[in-house]
Amino acid sequence: MKNLVEFMNPDVVAIKQQEIFKFNALAKANNNVVNMTVGEPDFATPDHIKLAAIHAIINDDTKYTVPEGDHALLRAAANYLKVKYDLNYDPETEMITTLGVTEGVFSTLNALLTTGDQVLIPAPCYTIYGPDAGFDQAEPIYLDTSKSEFKVEPTQLDEVLKTHPRIKVFLFNYPNNPTGVTYNRNELEKLADVLKKYNVFVVSDEIYSELTYSAKHYSFAKILPKQTILLNGVSKSHAMTGWRIGIACGPKEIIEQINKIHELATTAVSTVSQAAATEAFKNGFDDPIRMRKQYQKRRDVLLSGLEKLDFYCPIPDGAFYLFAKIPEGMNQDDVAFAKDLLAKENLAILPGSFFGEGGAGHLRLSYAASMDNIQSALLKLADYVSNYSKRPQSL
């Protein structure tokens, strides 16, 4: 009998397993590894949120909700977005609850794209974007930002849109994973001035919006609401990655179409998780503040330590990642570098090339880790650099 995989969807078979998950599994195989790869808060979900979930279980609030999500959750989320970012969404018609932003991206691109379309993705970028576009038989077009401090420049954006008329979606993530860079209002308005000239959807992944350090986050949906589908949630802001709650917002006629894909993929998101997220949006306005202060302290310690070891990276003003350039004179093959570091020092750091164009020769470090782990990581990295300079250079 033939291999049954030969009869499966070739577009699915062609998708590669995510390198970040494989590398993380390699790191977790050794309990002595200091792991700086994980992009999730090390804080516990706040107690008042956990209690809301417990009460939902005790009260047997465990049945299906409507696909778009419990309306109490959507109302709370709409108010949260209004208070935090001055956004005005009708919770009845312009918002749906998704299975994290990951499903939000998947369902949104499924609703927007068709064969032959192109998706413009600033790179380096989170690793699901390109495969999601390809799954819809669209072509990802990567915009290398490594020459401009990992930010999209308006002239660069205009040129790509002008020369690629099949681009239908601009998939924008800020604060950015993996670089940690973000944009101020003036920078966003200049990008919006370009985008409003083209028939392009903006899918704005703003899941790290509560983790900005020198200025308040300004949402792209505030500037270009008719073209923008906003994706956000509680995973990073409220240390709720495992609860899997995202929110997709946009014009009514667009959200209606996205909801068709969403309900086919999920029926509805976990009711218990929705109860927890309702509490987060309703009474958790200050929960991110304590975490954000700790992240900033960790960032500064890690940034200072890396600079002393000649690893350069732009100061990240959001999220909880540093994207560091491997020093000159050391192996610029970031995958080989990261694997050697793991083998010799039990320190796990993700290769930058996993995140696409512009990432080669870089390493992504997550400071969503304890201060003890950050200090330990710096000691291990210093030891590796010191020993590297002493041994014969054949790499």
Automatic annotation (TrEMBL):
<dbReference type="InterPro" id="IPR004839">
    <property type="entry name" value="Aminotransferase_I/II_large"/>
</dbReference>
<dbReference type="InterPro" id="IPR015422">
    <property type="entry name" value="PyrdxlP-dep_Trfase_small"/>
</dbReference>
<feature type="domain" description="Aminotransferase class I/classII large">
    <location>
        <begin position="32"/>
        <end position="373"/>
    </location>
</feature>
<dbReference type="Pfam" id="PF00155">
    <property type="entry name" value="Aminotran_1_2"/>
</dbReference>
<dbReference type="InterPro" id="IPR015421">
    <property type="entry name" value="PyrdxlP-dep_Trfase_major"/>
</dbReference>
<dbReference type="InterPro" id="IPR004838">
    <property type="entry name" value="NHTrfase_class1_PyrdxlP-BS"/>
</dbReference>
<dbReference type="GO" id="GO:0030170">
    <property type="term" value="F:pyridoxal phosphate binding"/>
</dbReference>
<dbReference type="InterPro" id="IPR015424">
    <property type="entry name" value="PyrdxlP-dep_Trfase"/>
</dbReference>
<dbReference type="GO" id="GO:0006520">
    <property type="term" value="P:amino acid metabolic process"/>
</dbReference>
<keyword id="KW-0032">Aminotransferase</keyword>
<protein>
    <recommendedName>
        <fullName>Aminotransferase</fullName>
        <ecNumber>2.6.1.-</ecNumber>
    </recommendedName>
</protein>
<comment type="similarity">
    <text>Belongs to the class-I pyridoxal-phosphate-dependent aminotransferase family.</text>
</comment>
<dbReference type="InterPro" id="IPR050596">
    <property type="entry name" value="AspAT/PAT-like"/>
</dbReference>
<keyword id="KW-0808">Transferase</keyword>
<keyword id="KW-0663">Pyridoxal phosphate</keyword>
<dbReference type="GO" id="GO:0008483">
    <property type="term" value="F:transaminase activity"/>
</dbReference>
